[in-house]
Amino acid sequence: MVVCGDDGLAHRLAAELRGVHGEQVTLVVPPNERMARPPVVGRARAASAALLDRVVSAAVGLGGGNGGNGTTGSGGNGGNAHRADGERVLEAFELTEAVLAEAGVERAAALALVHDDDETNIRAALTARRLNPRLRLVLRLYNRRLGQHIEELLDQAAALASGTAAADGAEASTTVLSDADTAAPALAAAAVAGTTKVVQTESLLLRAVERVPSGDGRTAAGGLCTLALLSAPGTDPAGADGPDGGREQEPVLLPDDEEVRQAGGRPAVVLEQVSSFGGPEAAAARRGMGVVPPLASLFSRRLRWSLAGLVGCVVALAVALWVVTGIHPLRAFYLTLLDLFAIDDPALGAPLGRQILQLLSGLVGLLLLPVLLAAVLEALGTFRTASALRKPPRGLGGHVVLLGLGKIGTRVLTRLRELHIPVVCVESDPEARGLATARRLRVPVVLGDVTQEGVLEAAKIHRAHALLSVTSADTTNLEAVLYARSVRPDLRVVLRLYDDDFATAVYRTLRAAHPQASTRSRSVSHLAAPAFAGAMLGRQVLGSIPVERRVLLIAAVEVAGHPELEGRSMAEAFRAGAFRALALEGRADVPGDYVLRKGDRVVVAATRRGLAELG
């Protein structure tokens, strides 16, 4: 396996392939002055993290003559290579043909191009496909429409290459993924419901929820099945020593029935619903969202109440005229409107009640004139400023404050609006890529540095439902969360943190300081790496369900050739701690006694190692 990248996703993906799936990995990164600091993958995989640390330390030491078997190309076309404990690191400024050849692309089974720049990945993919038509390619692209065309182009190029691939029976494939698209559903779900996890495929919608223990101390499981047992209340999910000096309970993924029965007092993640998802119709509705502004957005709330009050006055005057004069109700309304618009029909010689009502109708008509003028001006102003950023309206509450409108924040914003969740965005860069999306979706935006006083107040943080901080700086996210908690101690917060050790310390401290509030920390590369690794291994990872700082993968697996699945019922296709069959792809109503057979494609929940065992 060859992994090429310039940020934390490349390091995390290499550790995933090496430590979990046992693959031989060549990691191609920029030279040390441009290299991102690799993340600590997690305490549960300390060996892989230690290996990665040694690899990076060796890479940093290159260039001084101690590179071992390193080679250097001319004109920046080559790279420095080093091997440490079975993992090879190659340093190169650009992914040229010489660098890819030196990385072993011609002999590799799969290549992942996870640079942050789409153009770099596309150029390298075209070169790699020419070097090895049988190569399985995995590209990280932010532009989804361009990704579809590139995927078709590369697959067609592989099919029309030399006849070697067809003769060997190898099947080349290209998979285009986006770390932003992979992580956005989990981030949005954590902000909206705090405990809810949702995985959406093309035809299925899987919904998991955290269930707290019941009053008698037993786990309130319920649902279709139990996917995970969380840390016991008052414990630290990172596995640190507890206040009583003992080892804390860690989360358990895919427990069996006996473990669930014995887990008294521990909350659980339960699969609550598997339903069909109307893909084309829902997608069309999402595409049309925000194109035509709703009628209510043309007029302010105060103006709408004024119009309603005037309509009520007109109705009351017409009813009074009908009662006083005894004329037909329709004629009463007609005369009231004549009086309202000052059309000359004086009530000379009419009864006193009729004359008084005519004067009152004229007075209401005078009040109607400024209201109509205000309505016209507001409507014109709304259309004139349709392309401008909106400000948070007065009285807004129960919304989600989203910090950061980069590529991650933009995807999260789109996801929240698909769920019809009110959002207020905060962005410091007036040229951020997500501002156009916020303008199209008519989402209020506050421009300013979130670390400055008054910015979060302008976003109505004191009346918000949750704060979702997804900027690219860990310290900025932490500072925003701490300030928001000083304003609202019970505020639900979700922050994006890159480093696992730092995230664990922050999570533990925030939970200890605010035990009644919901706190979640998420890493985009941590959520996205399993999907990229699965694509490199030829598996379709549909999504992930975060369980504290661990991840449960949702993948589609062909039943044929898997003795753990073929010939077994849906209920029997289960191995504790490894995998569990949830549904058939495209079918939500599959009974537990349905026997899996060749040709079926089953949706499973699996741990990283469980998915590797399914092969």
Describe this structure in words.
- With about 625 residues, this protein is of the alpha/beta class.
- It is about 40% helix and about 20% strand.
- The protein contains 19 helices and 23 strands.
- The strands form four sheets. Strands 3-4-2-1-5-6-7 form a seven-stranded mixed sheet, with helices on both faces. Strands 15-14-13-16-17-18 form a six-stranded parallel sheet, with helices on both faces. A five-stranded antiparallel sheet has the order 8-9-12-10-11.
- The longest helix is centred in the middle third of the chain and has 33 residues, at about 350-385.
- The chain is elongated.
- The chain starts with a strand and ends with a helix.
- Residues about 35, about 40-75, about 165-170, about 215-220, about 235-245 and about 280-295 have low confidence and may be disordered.
